[in-house]
UniProtKB/TrEMBL annotation:
Protein name: Esterase
Keyword ATP-binding: no
A GO molecular-function descriptor: acyltransferase activity, transferring groups other than amino-acyl groups
InterPro entries: AB_hydrolase_fold, Esterase-like, Mycobacterial_A85_antigen
Organism whose genome encodes this protein: Dictyobacter vulcani
Signal peptide: none
Length: 505
C-alpha cells in the first residue's frame, strides 16, 4: 500500500524565513518607537530636565538622545525577543533624529567671542560622528539586552501559557505526547562560534571608539571641532602663538609633594624682541572634576590670548593653570581645609605665586596679577582674592558660587563664614578695592541666582565690578566666551616698568 504523503507548507522548509521576518518586525518596532520617543514633547522635556542638573544644552541633548535610543531598543526587544533588529532600528533613529541635525549645525560657521571665524576641522567632525555612532549602538545594545530580559520575565510565560491552551483546546493536541526531534547541531555550533567572534571584534571596536568620547560629556559634543581663528601676525619677528607647557613644582605646604601646573608664555617671551620684557600674570583655576589642562583644551584660554594679543586687543601676559585637586573623595574648593592638612589656598597665593615670580619674567605686584576660575574655580578665585587682596587686584569668577559648602571646611560655622565671599567681602574693607568680573549663564540653575545676589552685595559696597551674563548653561562654551571678554576687561597698570628681581628662597 502506497504511503500517504503529509503536506507541509514551503515556508516551513525555509529555516531562514521566520528569523528574518522577526528581525524586520523588531527593527520596525524599535524604529517606530524611536520616532515616537524623539517627538519634541518627549525629547525636549527630557533635555530640559537634564539642563536643570547644570548641564548645558548640547550635552543634555546628546545624553537625552542616547537614553531615548536605549529605550527604543528596549521596546523593540521586549515585544519581539529579537535584539539585533532592535539595535539597528534604535540606531537608525539616533542617526536620523539627532546625528544629522548635529552635523548640520556644526557646518554653520562658528566664531569666537570676538567675531573671528573658527575653521571647521573635517577630520575631527568625522571622528566625533564615529564616537557618537558607537555610543548609540552601545546604548541600543544595552537597551536590547534589557528588553530581551524583560521579555523572558513578563512576556514569555503568559505567551507560552496561551500557546499551550490554544494547542490543547483548539487544535486538540495532547501536549504530553509531544516529543523532541533529533537534529544535527555541529554546523550550527560552528556558525554560532563564527558569529560570536565577529560580534566580539565589533564590540571591541565600539568600546574603543566610545572610550575616546569623554570630552563629549565633560566639555561639549562640539569640543575640538573648530581650530583657532586665522588672524595672522603683524610682526614677523614674533610668532603668532604662545607656548604652553606642563610642569611640576614641589610644594612644602602640601607635604613636600610635587604639584602639576600648566603655563602659557606669550608669543614674544622666548624671542629676542621679548628677552628684556616682563609680563603680567593671570592664574586660572579649574572646576570639579578638573585638571590644569582644562583651561587650555576646553576653555581655549591660550587660543583666546593668542587671538587678542595678535589683534592688539590686549597686552601680552603669562597664564598659570595650577592643580587644585585635593585628597580623594572630597573637592578641595581651592581653600585651606578646616583640619589644616590641605592648604590649597596658601599653596596658590603664596607658594606658587612666589615660584612663578622667581622663575619667569613677571611683573611681581598685585596690580599686574589676576586670578580667575570657573565653577569651583570661580568660587576659589573670589575667595582667594578676598583673603589675599595684597597679591591679586583682579578677580574673574565664572559660573561660581559665593558661599562655603562641603565637608572640606569642617564643622566650624565661623570658618565657613570666613570662606564665604558673600559674607566676607563686607568684612574686608581692603578687599572691596578689588576689580571683579562676574560671569554666568541665565540657564545655570544652580549658580545664576547666587551670582545675582553677590552682585547686589558688591554693588551696595561700591566695589568696582562688571557683571556679564549670556544665554546658556553651566558650560565651557559660556566660560570660554566670558574669559575672552574678561581678558579685554582687565586693565593692567604700566607694563614697561623696570624689572623687579624676586629672590629665590
Amino acid at each position: 500500500m502506497k504511503q500517504k504523503q503529509i503536506f507541509t507548507p514551503r515556508w516551513q522548509h525555509n529555516k531562514w524565513l521566520i528569523p528574518i521576518l522577526w528581525f524586520f518586525v523588531s527593527f520596525l518596532v524599535a524604529l517606530l518607537s524611536g520616532f515616537f520617543l524623539f517627538r519634541h514633547t518627549v525629547y525636549d522635556e527630557l533635555t530640559a530636565t537634564l539642563i536643570t542638573t547644570s548641564l548645558d544644552a548640547m550635552r543634555s541633548q546628546l545624553i537625552a538622545a542616547l537614553l531615548l535610543t536605549a529605550l527604543a531598543a528596549i521596546i523593540g526587544a521586549l515585544l519581539t525577543n529579537r535584539k539585533m533588529g532592535a539595535v539597528l532600528g534604535a540606531t537608525v533613529v539616533f542617526i536620523l533624529r539627532y546625528m544629522i541635525t548635529f552635523i548640520q549645525t556644526e557646518l554653520i560657521p562658528v566664531t569666537d567671542a570676538g567675531g573671528h571665524i573658527k575653521p571647521l576641522q573635517p577630520d575631527a567632525l568625522n571622528h566625533t560622528t564615529l564616537m557618537m555612532g558607537a555610543l548609540a549602538i552601545l546604548s541600543a545594545f544595552i537597551g536590547s539586552a534589557i528588553g530581551a530580559s524583560l521579555y523572558e520575565i513578563f512576556v514569555k510565560p503568559p505567551a507560552l501559557l496561551i500557546h499551550n491552551i490554544w494547542q490543547h483546546y483548539v487544535n486538540k493536541q495532547d501536549l504530553s505526547a509531544q516529543t523532541t526531534h533529533s537534529m544535527s547541531i555541529q554546523g550550527n555550533i560552528q556558525r554560532w562560534h563564527l558569529e560570536r567572534w565577529i560580534a566580539l571584534f565589533i564590540m571591541i571596536g565600539l568600546f574603543f571608539l566610545a572610550s575616546q568620547s569623554g570630552n563629549l560629556f565633560i566639555i561639549s559634543p562640539d569640543a575640538d571641532l573648530h581650530s583657532a581663528p586665522l588672524v595672522g601676525t603683524a610682526n614677523s619677528d614674533v610668532p603668532a602663538f604662545g607656548h604652553t607647557q606642563i610642569l611640576k613644582v614641589r610644594s612644602k605646604l602640601l607635604g613636600n609633594r610635587m604639584r602639576q601646573f600648566e603655563i602659557y608664555l606669550p608669543p614674544s617671551y622666548n624671542t629676542a624682541v621679548g628677552k628684556n620684557k616682563r609680563y603680567p600674570t593671570a592664574y586660572l583655576l579649574h572646576g570639579s572634576p578638573g585638571q590644569p589642562v582644562d583651561w587650555i583644551i576646553a576653555g581655549k584660554a591660550a587660543e583666546s590670548a593668542d587671538t587678542l594679543i595678535d589683534t592688539k586687543k590686549i597686552s601680552e601676559l603669562i597664564l598659570v593653570m595650577p592643580d587644585g585637586n585635593g585628597a580623594p573623595g572630597a573637592t578641595s574648593e581651592w581653600g585651606n581645609s578646616g583640619n589644616g592638612k590641605q592648604p590649597i589656598e596658601d599653596y596658590v597665593s603664596k607658594e606658587l605665586v612666589k615660584y612663578i615670580d622667581q622663575h619667569y619674567r613677571t611683573i611681581p605686584d598685585a596690580d599686574h596679577r589676576a586670578i580667575g576660575g570657573l565653577s569651583m574655580g570661580g568660587f576659589g578665585a573670589m575667595n582667594i582674592a578676598i583673603h589675599h587682596y595684597d597679591v591679586f587686584h583682579w578677580v574673574v569668577a565664572l559660573g561660581g558660587y559665593y558661599k562655603a559648602d562641603g565637608t572640606i571646611w569642617g564643622p566650624s560655622q565661623a570658618y565657613r563664614q570666613y570662606n564665604s565671599p558673600i559674607i566676607q567681602i563686607g568684612r574686608q574693607p581692603q578687599a572691596q578695592k578689588l576689580h571683579m568680573f562676574l560671569g554666568d549663564a541665565t540657564e545655570d540653575k544652580a549658580f545664576y541666582s547666587g551670582m545675582l545676589r553677590y552682585a547686589q552685595v558688591v554693588h551696595k559696597l561700591h566695589v568696582n565690578y562688571l557683571m556679564v551674563t549670556e544665554h546658556g548653561g553651566h558650560s565651557w562654551k559660556v566660560w570660554t566666551d566670558q574669559m575672552y571678554k574678561a581678558f579685554t576687561w582687565i586693565s593692567w597698570g604700566p607694563l614697561h616698568q623696570a624689572p623687579k628681581a624676586v629672590k629665590k628662597s
